[in-house]
Each structure stands twice: as structure tokens, then as C-alpha cells.
Amino acid sequence: TAEARLAAALRRARGAIVAEREAARGLPEGFSIAYDVVPRDVAEDSRKVGQILGSMMPMMLILMSLLGSFLPAIDLTAGEKERGTMQTLLCAPVRSIEIISGKFLAVWIISLLTALGNVVSLSLTVSRMLPDVMVVDPWIFALTFALLVPVTLLFSALFLALAVFAKDFKDGQNALMPAYLPLSLLAGITALPVVELNPWTAYAPVLNIAVLIKALFVGEAPVDLLFTALLSSALYACLALLFAARVFERENVLLGGQESARAVLGLRRRAGGAPSAGFSLAAFAGVQVLFFYGSLLIARASVAVQLAVSQVGFFLAPTLALVAGFGYSPRATLGLRRPSVRGLAGALLLGASAWAAIGGTVLRWFPPPEPFVRELGELVLLGGQPYLVVLLLVAVTPAVCEELLFRGLVYAGLRRAGPAVAIGVSALLFGLAHGSVYRLLPTLSLGLVLGYARHRTGSVLPGALLHALNNGLAVSLLYFKPPSVQGIVEGELLPWSVTAAAAVVSLAGLLLLRSASPGAPEEGEHRGDGEPRGP
Predict the structure, then answer these.
(1) Best CA proximity match to 54, nearest among 159, 175, 200, 211
(2) Residue 414 within a domain
(3) Which residue ranges traverse the bilayer (predicted)?
(4) b/e for 118-149, b at 16 or more Cβ within 10 A?
């Protein structure tokens, strides 16, 4: 290039000038050069080969997995329409869920076996090409195959759902190419040295697993981003499965008819009631993606501004917009009912004691590292903001915004699967949303208590009260640091006596919740298992 030629010319000119000056002063040639700078690669052999394999393996494995599900998905959908066997299958005494399950498992197993075969083949090829150097641990290849599992799930479900719209095999190939090419591109760009696992790529479908495989071979896979990439990839796979199941419920599509995207996706405006589980989980995934990328955009703002914008702009606003935009009943979906006095009393007792009972038990067995505790304490205080501001942003705002999302929208969609599923899944998502391995068990435990309060009272208000008290007490202890609890504030474990007393108070709160009666159901709803349900 012109830049390289210019740099070379300047180096030659500089050398000539230096040589002239040395000769003028009677110095030997090269005297002014104290030392020579010679580039040398000091990386270990395993890292060198890992860098090369990390650039090649993700693209090759993901492309092969794509091809493994591409043709089987077309043959089991559009191919059956062309052969006339789809109509025969629909006349058989089987349910639509059994049809989609059988076809999906067939496509997924083929894709999974394709991925397994390629991983084994490439591992043997590497060991054959480099027999004298232990460059890659065999466990790296095993982990690589494990990471391909959610990717093959995503490909199989997505291709199956798209191919069913085609009328014949050729039409199916044309239908899948617009999806195949972007997915191939996402896998291919991992070969670029600048593409690595970071907070932006950890949420990108397909790309997150590709860069995670690359990081494994290079030996630089951060635990927190690994957790984020796996979670987001699993969510995308679940959404693809829900989409495929919804498509196969449309008999008109299976028989070759045409339907609008709004009809297939179930995006028609409702007249009251609560959302489905698929809608709630999709809404949660969308809110998390919005929260993640939105947080990066406001990363330079103060901690207080970040917290306020995140809670109101990325949690509360989308939740209210989805409920209002799709016409769901705010009362049934968000649990906006007047709770009983016993429900409020139980929430009050739990809010005052659950933090000590959970913290004294969970943190005793799974203590977080001291730097994490110290950093979290500084973060909670919002950089020295006044007490009322900290209390509002850390206690009150999350209690409202997070409860309306998790014990409102998410819980309402899962409620038809039963209270145990609704409480457990909403609590798990609540724990995962906090994005920290060290906070997962405490927040999961708190989420179970909050979900139980929602179930027994039929209202989100007791949970919001419990949540606000839990956070508010923690904020107050950190802010004022009373001498009697100085050790606890600085990260020491709660004494067993305090934990036991808190557990007794929490048990009393749970008993009050158990005896609480849910609020009156709105018109069109009925009571069941202590929980008003939508139509």
C-alpha cells in the first residue's frame, strides 16, 4: 500500500541521515542504535493453535449444524405437502403437538448428530495434524459440542416453522435461504480477529455461541459473559420452539393456505384477559434485550440516572405498553387488586425478616467474594446520594417496576400451567435477570416468596410492599451503619440466633399469606387455587 511504501522510504531516509551524522563524528556505523527491536511471538504453542482453531472451528461447526437441519426441515414439511402425506397425517388421530414434537425431534436429532460428527472429525483431524504437541484439551471439544445444543435447537425449530409455509420442496429451499444467509454470516464473522466475546455479542443469536466457542479455544472465556451467552441462546431457542408450535397449530398453513403474520403470531388485540405463556416469555426476553443494550447506551451517566432509567424506561414502560397495546386486562395481568389485610400483614412480616432469613442461610453456604460484596455495597449507595434518593431508587422503584414485570406480566402468562410453575419460573427469571452468579440464589429465594404472595393474595401489591421493605432495610443498614450491626454491614455472616429469629418471623408471615383470601375477581374471571384467573 501507499502507506507501507511511504513508511519504508522514511525508514531508509532516517537510516541514511543517522549514518551521515555518525560518520561526521567519527563514530562506527550503528553506534547510535542502543539495541535492536526484533518482534518475536512468545505465545505458547497451545495458544497459537487455539487462536487459529478459534477462528475456524465456530464457523465450520455452525455451518454444518445449519445444513444438518436445513434439508430435513424442508423434507418433513414442504416435502410432505408435495407428496400429499401431510393431509393424511392431519387426518390421523394425533394431536398437533404430537405432530410438531415428532417432526422437531427428527430434525433436531439429525442436526445434533451432524454437529457431533463434525466435532469428532475435527478433533481427530487436529490431533492427526499436530501429534507432537498437546494443543487442545479434549474437554474443549466436549464443551464445544455442548454449546452447539441450543444452536441446533434454534436452527431446527426456526427452519421447521418457516419451511411449513412452503408448498413444495423447491419452494421450501427458497423460503429458508433468507434465514440461512444471515445465520451463516453471523457464524462467519467470528473469523475476524476483532470479533470477540463482549457485552454486545453475548446477546446476539448464533454469534454469541460462535464467539464463545472461539473464546474457549483461545482460553479467554469470562464466566459472567459465558453465563449471559448461554442464557440468551437458551431463550432464543425457546422462542423459536414456541413459534414453531404456534405455526403448527394453524391447520390452514399446514394444508398450504395463506395466513397473515399477525394471525400466526397471535398478535391480534385482545379484549381483556391475561396473556399466554409464550407471550409472557417473549415479552421477558424482549425486555431483557432492551435493558441490556439500553444500559450500554447510558453507561456514562451517573449510577442514580442509570438505575432510574433502567427501571422506569426498560422495565416499567415496556410492561405497561405491552399490556395496553395488546388489550390485556391490567387487573388480571398485572394483579392490580386490593389485597386482604392478612395478605398485607404477611407481606409486612416477610419484608422485615426475609432478607435476614435468606441471607443468613444462603450466604452461609455460598458466600460471595469480599470484593464483590464491597463493590455491591458502594453501588447500592449510588455514589453518595441523599438517603431519601437512595431509598426511592433502590427500594421503591424496583419494588414497583420489577413486580409489575415478574409477578405481573410474566406470572400471569405462566399461571395457566399451575401455581407451582408460575411461582418457580417467574422466580428463576427474576434471579437470572439480576445478572450475577453470586446473587442468583438469594434473589431466586426472594422471588419464590414474592411469587407465593402473588399466588395467595391474587394481588401484586403485597409483593411490592415486601420487595420495598426488603431493599429498604438493606439500604438503611448500609447507609447509616449502626454500631450494633457494623460487622454485618461490612460483610460478616449473620449470627445463627438472628437467622433463626428472622426465620420464625418469616414463617409467621407465610402462615398469614396462606390464610389470606384473594381479592374479588373481575367480571369474566373465576377463582381457583386461591388465584383469580383470566378467561
Answers:
(1) 211
(2) yes
(3) 56-74, 105-127, 139-165, 177-195, 202-219, 225-245, 277-299, 305-329, 341-366, 386-406, 418-441, 461-481, 493-513
(4) bbeebbeebeeeeeeeebbeeebbebbbebbb
3-state secondary structure (DSSP) of residue 521: coil
**Residue 491, pLDDT score:** 53
Neighbours of 117 (CB within 10 A): 12
> pLDDT > 90: what percent of the chain?
21
Please tell me whether residues 293 and 164 are part of one structural domain.
no
* Gyration radius of the chain's alpha carbons: 29
- Give the sign of the dihedral formed by CA 200, CA 205, CA 207, CA 209: positive
Distances (CA, A) of 284 to 2, 183, 288, 431, 449: 52, 23, 6, 13, 20
Give the predicted TM-score (pTM) of the model. Answer: 0.61
Instruction: Provide the residue range defining the domain that includes 181.
Output: 46-265
Spatial CA neighbour of 521 closest among 457, 463, 464: 457
How much is the mean pLDDT over the chain? 81
Quote helix, strand, coil % in the chain, to nearest 5.
75, 0, 25
- Rounded to whole angstroms, the Cα distance separating 306 from 299 reads 7
Which pLDDT belongs to residue 5? 87
Same domain, 340 and 457: yes
The 3-class secondary structure across 435-492, one letter per residue, is CCHHHHHHHHHHHHHHHHHHHHHCCCHHHHHHHHHHHHHHHHHHHHCCHHHHHHHCCC
Same domain, 159 and 86: yes
Q: Does residue 115 share a domain with residue 246? A: yes
What is the predicted pLDDT for the residue at 409? 93
> 34: pLDDT confidence band, cut at 50, 70 and 90?
low
Among the listed residues 2, 32, 38, the one whose alpha carbon sits nearest the alpha carbon of residue 17: 32
Please check whether residue 531 lies inside any domain of the structure. Answer: no
The three cell numbers of residue 512 are: 398469614
Distance between CA 167 and CA 175 in Å, rounded?
A: 10
Helix (H) / strand (E) containing 527: strand 526-528
User: Are residues 395 and 453 located together in one domain of the fold?
Assistant: yes
- The reply to whether 410 and 457 lie within a common domain is yes
Same domain, 35 and 167: no
As for how many domains the chain has, the answer is 3
d(CA 398, CA 416): 26
Q: Exposed/middle/buried for 60, CB within 10 Å: 0-12, 13-18, 19+?
A: middle
Residue 524 lies in a domain: no
Query: Cα(274)–Cα(279) distance, rounded to whole angstroms?
Result: 10
Residue ranges with strand state E in 116-166: none
Do residues 122 and 52 lie in contact, with contact meaning Cβ atoms separated by under 8 Å? no
Q: Tell me, yes or no, whether 363 and 217 share the same domain.
A: no
Whether 160 is covered by a domain: the verdict is yes
* Alpha helices (runs of H) in 298-340, residue ranges in sequence order: 303-309, 317-325, 330-334
Q: Determine the Cα–Cα distance for residues 192 and 273; give it in Å rounded to an integer.
A: 49
C-alpha cell belonging to residue 423: 411461582
DSSP 339-401: PPHHHHHHHHHHHHHHHHHHHHHHHHHSPPPHHHHHHHHHHHTTTT--HHHHHIIIIIHHHHH
Picking from 25, 40, 55, the residue at the C-terminal end of a domain is: 40
pLDDT at position 316 is: 93
What does the DSSP 8-state code read for residue 329?
-
